[in-house]
Write a structure and sequence with these properties.
The protein has 636 residues and is of the alpha/beta class. The protein is built from 23 helices and 22 strands. The strands form six sheets. Strands 10, 13, 15, 16, 17, 19, 20 and 21 form an eight-stranded mixed sheet that branches. Strands 8-6-5-4-1-9 form a six-stranded parallel sheet, with helices on both faces. Keywords: Hydrolase, Membrane, Protease, Serine protease, Transmembrane, Transmembrane helix.
């Protein structure tokens, strides 16, 4: 009996040693694979990715289009690519797409740009409009843009509509369903679980907390949401109709009209799209290949057309590899660009999320850089922590005091906290389709005393004050509820006062258009919430003008990588070239993308929706429990 602990200890020690050995072997194996790949790339000049002399650039975008990528471990990213696995949530940087299109326009080797968009997931109309401008500029060179695919989602089709010709598979699918805002509501579920929710808010239209206190969308929220959704949908229709040469009545918003046209097309979505002038031709994949071979010739294997994929083109045309890239003298005067993308949270956060401390640190870095003469704050955020938003706002004010003009450039979203950090800028630019406003504030907490009592768990004790021991396992007293509501009321007054003082408006004028209401960028300009309609480039030009700069360069101010990550990225980046050379994905994805990356099983979609809505609550970390967040700020 006394030997049992010793035997168990020896068993676990042996298992641990075995695991340690296995781990060491795997790590060393990966290291040597990377090392040999790295040496191979350095020692072999011919093994660089090359752009064919006469070719098509395939814009085969996979994932969400974002202003800033979330931070991913370099080793994890390399292993995913090396094993040809799909990233969990792939992202494509908006600036990379625009840069690639701009390079291809001037690249004599690229004669055709092919839009292969079935992997494109979420983007937002503002980002799509920016890419569309770049595509139209590409066409101005006389080169063709051809969009092809087995199917087109609404976002994908917006970009496809810029093409000289759109090809759809005869068995393909496309349907434009407009914009909508639908959410799940949990009031009855919380009641059944005996979870008590306590909501404190200011703003008739501040609907962020409605899913927890209602089983449906309020009339006020429906009114506000329908207005900005209709504005975005009209912009979508006008842009597409102009490019395709038909009227707004061609968008079948009435189900009866849609069914009539669909029946007339032999109940074929592809024929419906062709008859409705959505697409120009119905072609099988082989027919698409054959026609493209006629335009740019065959590839080396002779089984498809000459082409290079998006990622490989980036690798091949980087300044270190491509002699065709001009390297000009840099100006010492800089307009700094700082990206604030994602939910605003307290403290330091990784790229892809806005941290009160981490984003303030970037603004401070720009302030202390003597070469930086002006700053553009690129905001793509629905808001979040009121406290973190205020920390960022204070740094914006310090930049202005240092004599460095600040221009806010709004992306897809700049609402609630996103507007809070934009308001003090010397000038605010928004796209017509930007979702902004939502000037309001709320607080929310849940207590579980009734849920716990059902399973026999109770909380009791004594304290020296009325507020001692306050927590989620006890009922919220009327006094504490009043305390929180007063704090929320003050937060709202601070918000509208901030807007009034920076937008040359009275508090009453701001309050009339605030109340948590969401506006499109187009309407926000009419209301005085933004100064100009324009994109990031327009904002940079405006910032340079405010700083009286005639010659300048832009400088992206971002989180510095650790020494470990720099070394890993250098090693993995070189090794990834080898992976790309022998990977078939870039070749076959040009036309043979058989699966639709935007679709998934209904159960998976439902679980994902639940996870996304509930995970937002878990992220909340404002020290005072006050949030200025626009949960409604997404259209689908």
């Amino acid at each position: 009996m006394n030997n049992k602990p010793g035997i168990i200890k020896r068993i676990f020690s042996s298992l641990w040693r075995a695991l340690s050995v296995t781990r060491s072997v795997v790590v060393n194996l990966v290291f040597f694979v990377l090392l040999f790949a790295f040496i191979g790339v350095l020692s072999s000049g011919e093994e660089q990715i090359q752009v064919p002399e006469k070719t098509a650039l395939v814009l085969n975008l996979v994932g969400d289009i974002v202003e800033q990528k979330r931070e991913v471990d370099p080793m994890e990213a390399f292993v995913t690519e090396a094993m040809e696995q799909q990233e969990d949530k792939p992202e494509v940087l908006l600036s990379d797409i625009i840069d690639v299109i701009g390079k291809a326009k001037k690249d004599y080797r690229v004669e055709v740009l092919v839009l292969q968009l079935q992997g494109l997931q979420r983007a937002g109309l503002t980002k799509l409009q920016d890419i569309a401008v770049a595509l139209e500029d590409f066409k101005s060179s006389g080169k063709q843009v051809i969009a092809l695919g087995d199917q087109f989602s609404q976002d994908q089709y917006y970009l496809a509509s810029t093409a000289n010709s759109i090809w759809l598979n005869p068995q393909g699918f496309m349907l434009l369903d407009g914009y909508g805002r639908y959410k799940m509501y949990f009031k009855s579920a919380l009641e059944k679980l005996s979870i008590n929710q306590h909501i404190f808010r200011v703003g008739t239209f501040k609907s962020a907390v409605e899913p927890f206190i209602r089983d449906d969308m309020s009339d006020a929220a429906k009114e506000a949401n329908k207005l900005w959704l209709a504005d975005l949908w009209m912009q979508y229709k006008e842009d597409v109709a102009k490019r395709r040469g038909f009227g707004l009545e061609n968008f079948d918003e009435n189900i009866d009209s849609l069914v009539t046209k669909f029946s007339a097309a032999d109940s074929s979505f592809a024929k419906y799209a062709l008859n409705n002038n959505w697409v120009d031709q119905l072609k099988t994949r082989q027919e698409m290949r054959t026609e493209l071979m006629g335009l740019v010739g065959k590839n080396k294997k002779g089984d498809s057309y000459s082409h290079i994929g998006y990622k490989n083109y980036i690798a091949a045309t980087s300044s270190a590899l491509d002699e065709n890239v001009d390297i000009t003298d840099e100006s010492s005067d800089k307009v700094a660009i700082i990206v604030a993308k994602g939910t605003i949270l307290d403290g330091s956060q990784k790229p892809g999320t806005i941290g009160g401390d981490s984003t303030a640190r970037l603004l401070r870095k720009a302030r202390n850089n003597d070469d930086v003469k002006a700053v553009v704050l690129r905001v793509d955020s629905p808001g979040g922590s009121a406290y973190a938003s205020e920390i960022i706002r204070q740094e914006v004010e310090l930049l202005k005091k240092a004599g460095k003009p600040v221009v806010a450039s709004m992306g897809t979203y700049a609402a609630s906290g996103g507007y809070w950090i934009s308001a003090p800028a010397d000038k605010i630019y928004a796209a017509p389709s930007t979702i902004t406003g939502s000037i309001g504030i709320f607080g929310m907490m849940m207590t579980f005393e009734d849920s716990l009592s059902k399973v026999g768990i109770h909380t009791d004790g004594v304290g020296t004050t009325d507020i001692a021991g306050f927590g989620p396992t006890q009922a919220l007293t009327p006094g504490m509820a009043n305390l929180f509501q007063l704090s929320i009321n003050r937060g709202y007054q601070e918000f509208i006062q901030l807007v009034a003082s920076n937008r040359d408006m009275t508090v009453e004028e701001v309050d009339a258009i605030a109340q948590g209401r969401v506006w499109s960028g187009k309407k926000a300009k009419e209301l005085g919430l933004v100064d100009e309609l324009g994109n990031l480039t327009d904002a940079v030009v405006a910032a340079a003008s405010l700083a009286n700069l005639e010659q300048y360069d832009t400088l992206l101010v971002e989180k510095e990588q650790t020494s470990r990550n720099k070394i890993m990225q250098m090693l993995l980046g070189k090794s990834a070239t080898v992976v790309a050379l022998f990977s078939p994905n870039e070749e076959h994805s040009a036309i043979d993308l058989a699966t639709n990356a935007t679709s998934s099983a209904p159960l998976t979609q439902f679980i994902s929706m639940m996870k996304n809505q509930l995970s937002q609550i878990n992220q909340f970390n404002d020290p005072q429990g006050r949030y200025t967040l626009c949960v409604a700020c997404s259209a689908n």
